C-alpha cells in the first residue's frame, strides 16, 4: 500500500497542530518527524517534548527519522513519546543488529536509513529483520533540496532485493519528492513517500489531496 508521510520539518511551528490536522484530514496516514542532533547532520531540529505534544492530538502513524549519532540511547524515549516507527541511519550505528532489536523491544517498527552514497550491501544481513528501509534521496540535514537522480536505480535494486527474498518490506523515500517525480519513485518500487516542502508550502489540504490522487491510482 502506498502512503504519504508529510515531514513536519517544513511546517509552520507556530501553528504546528493546525498544519498536522490539515494534512491528516486531507488523507495523509503517516507523519514524518525529522530529529536532528547537529552532529550526524549539520542542523538541529526538535525532540521528544514536541512529539509528546502532537501525539495527544493525532492518530497518524508517527514515523520518526533519527538523524542522530548513537541513536540507541534515545530509542526508548522516542517510543514512549509515541513513535510507531523508528528509523536509524546505518551510518550512525556500530552495532546495527542490536539497535534494530532495541527498537522492536521498545514496541516500535524498525527501519534503517541509508544516505544516497551508502550502498545497499549494508542491508545484506539485516534486511529480514526490518519493517521498512528508508532510502535518502537527498543528503540528510535540510528540507527543500533537489532529488538525486542516481537514487532511482537504487530504489529499483532494493525492490528487487526485497522481492527476490520473498519479503514485503516497505521502501520509504525521503528528500526532494514533488508531484513531478512522484510517479517515477513509485514505479521504481517505493511505497512510503516523505514530502516536506511539497506538502507544507502553500495550500496543505490541496497538496496532500494532489499527492493522494497519484498514490491511490
Ligand atoms: C531531510 C529530511 C527530510 C526533509 C524532506 O534531512 O530527512 O525528511 O524534511 O524535505 P523535502 O521534501 O522538502 O525535501
Ligand atoms: Zn526525513
Structure, briefly:
It catalyses: D-ribulose 5-phosphate = D-xylulose 5-phosphate. 34% of the residues lie in helices and 20% in strands. It has helices at residues 16-25, 48-55, 75-80, 96-105, 151-164, 179-188, 197-200, 204-215, and strands at residues 3-6, 30-36, 61-67, 85-89, 109-114, 132-136, 170-174, 192-195.
What does this structure look like?
By secondary structure, the protein is an alpha/beta fold. The chain has a single domain, classed as Alpha-Beta Barrel (TIM Barrel). Helices cover 34% and strands 20% of the residues. The protein has eight helices and eight strands; from the N terminus they run E-H-E-H-E-H-E-H-E-E-H-E-H-E-H-H. The protein has an eight-stranded parallel sheet with strand order 1-8-7-6-5-4-3-2. The longest helix is centred in the last third of the chain and has 14 residues, at 151-164. It is globular. Residues 7, 9-10, 32, 34, 65, 138, 140-145, 174-177, 194-198 line the site of D-xylitol-5-phosphate.
Helical content, roughly? 25-40%
User: In the residues, how many domains can be counted?
Assistant: 1
Q: Give helix and strand order, one letter per element, not per position.
A: EHEHEHEHEEHEHEHH
CATH class: Alpha Beta
Average predicted confidence as pLDDT = 98
- CATH third-tier fold name: TIM Barrel
Measured on Cα atoms, how large is the radius of gyration? 16 Å
DSSP E strands, number = 8
Strand arrangement, major sheet:
1-8-7-6-5-4-3-2
Please indicate the percent range of residues in DSSP E strands (runs of 2 or more).
15-25%
Bound molecules: D-xylitol-5-phosphate, zinc ion
**Head-to-tail CA distance between termini:** 11 Å
CATH superfamily: Aldolase class I
CATH architecture descriptor text: Alpha-Beta Barrel
Number of helices: 8
Global outline: globular
Low-confidence runs of at least 5 consecutive residues: none
Secondary-structure-based class equals alpha/beta
GO molecular function: D-ribulose-phosphate 3-epimerase activity; metal ion binding
Family: Belongs to the ribulose-phosphate 3-epimerase family.
Cofactor: Mn(2+); Co(2+); Zn(2+); a divalent metal cation
Pfam family, one: Ribul_P_3_epim
Amino acid at each position: 500500500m502506498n502512503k504519504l508521510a508529510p515531514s513536519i520539518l517544513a511546517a509552520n511551528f507556530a501553528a504546528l497542530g493546525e498544519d498536522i490536522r490539515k494534512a491528516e484530514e486531507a488523507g495523509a496516514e503517516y507523519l514524518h518527524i525529522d530529529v536532528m542532533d547537529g552532529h550526524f547532520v549539520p542542523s538541529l531540529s526538535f525532540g521528544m517534548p514536541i512529539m509528546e505534544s502532537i501525539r495527544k492530538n493525532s492518530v497518524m502513524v508517527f514515523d520518526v527519522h533519527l538523524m542522530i549519532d548513537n541513536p540507541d540511547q534515545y530509542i526508548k524515549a522516542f517510543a514512549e513519546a509515541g513513535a510507531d516507527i523508528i528509523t536509524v541511519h546505518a551510518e550512525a550505528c556500530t552495532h546495527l543488529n542490536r539497535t534494530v532489536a532495541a527498537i522492536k523491544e521498545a514496541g516500535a517498527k524498525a527501519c534503517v536509513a541509508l544516505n544516497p552514497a551508502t550502498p545497499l550491501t549494508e542491508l545484506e544481513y539485516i534486511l529480514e529483520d526490518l519493517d521498512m528501509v528508508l532510502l535518502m534521496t537527498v543528503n540528510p540535514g535540510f528540507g527543500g533540496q533537489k532529488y538525486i537522480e542516481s537514487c532511482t536505480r537504487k530504489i529499483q535494486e532494493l525492490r528487487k532485493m526485497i522481492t527476490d527474498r520473498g519479503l514485503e518490506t516497505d521502501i520509504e523515500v525521503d528528500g526532494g519528492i514533488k508531484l513531478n517525480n512522484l510517479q517515477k519513485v513509485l514505479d521504481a518500487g517505493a511505497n512510503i513517500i516523505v514530502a516536506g516542502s511539497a506538502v507544507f508550502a502553500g495550500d496543505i489540504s490541496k497538496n496532500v489531496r494532489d499527492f493522494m490522487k497519484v498514490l491511490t491510482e
